């Protein structure tokens, strides 16, 4: 696997772990009060959703990097890859 794909997989795992931790804190009022000294019950579910989304995003990006061929830097200049125009000037 490429270094870039591996980096994205690590980021995906980090986001997933963060989401799991925040979910556990949101689901456990005792943990909130004793460990984090929060005076009232909080939920962080919207943040959990965001971290989960980014976990999926980074994992998908790693898969695409691993499985897809990157375009060469000058491929856009190659006439064979350009659409042909039917209009005449």
Explain what this protein looks like in three dimensions.
The chain has one domain (3-70). 61% of the residues lie in helices and 0% in strands. The protein has three helices and no strands. Helix 1 (3-27) packs antiparallel against helix 3.
Helix content: 55-70%
Structural class: mainly alpha
Overall geometry comes to elongated
Can you tell me the number of structural domains?
1
Termini separation comes to: 48 Å
Q: How many helix segments?
A: 3
Strand content: under 5%
Radius of gyration over all CA atoms, rounded: 22 Å
**Could you name the ranges where pLDDT drops below 50 across 5 or more consecutive residues?**
none
List key phrases describing it.
single chain
Quick overview of this protein structure:
This protein is an all-alpha fold and 89 residues long. The protein has helices spanning 3-27, 29-34, 45-67.
